[in-house]
Write a structure and sequence with these properties.
The chain is mainly α. The chain contains five helices and three strands. Strand 1 and strand 2 form a beta hairpin.
Amino acid sequence: MTSPDPSSPAVLGLPRHLLRLEGLAVLAAATLGYAALGGSWPLFAALFLLPDLAMAGYLRGPALGALAYNLAHSHRSPAVLAAAGLVLGAEEAVAVALIWSAHIGFDRALGYGLKYPEGFAATHLGRLATPRPRRPG
C-alpha cells in the first residue's frame, strides 16, 4: 500500500476499493428498496441525477461548489428525509430518499467522492483523473 500524498488527502489501496464496493451495495440496496415500495421507474429515472444539480455551485468557485456538492451527496440528507417519511407515513418521501441514496451509491461506486475545496477533482476517494488532450499526429 502506498502512503497518501499530503497534498491530496484521500483513501488509497484496499480501503478505497472497499468504499467503492460499499457505494455499489448502497446503490443495490436503495434500488431494491425502491422496487419493494412499488415505486415508479420513470420517476426514478427523472430524479436519479437531480443531486448533480448541486455542481452548479462550482460556478461560484471551488469552495462553494464543494460545499454544495457535499450537502447533496451526503447520506445524512436522504436519511433524514426517509426517517421523516416513515414517521409521517409519507411513502413518497421514502421513495425520493431511496432514489437519492441510490444516486449517492452510484457516484461512490464510480469513485466520485466527497469534494475538497481545492476543486472538483480532489475527493476523499482519490483524485479524479482529468482527461489529457490528444496530441495531433
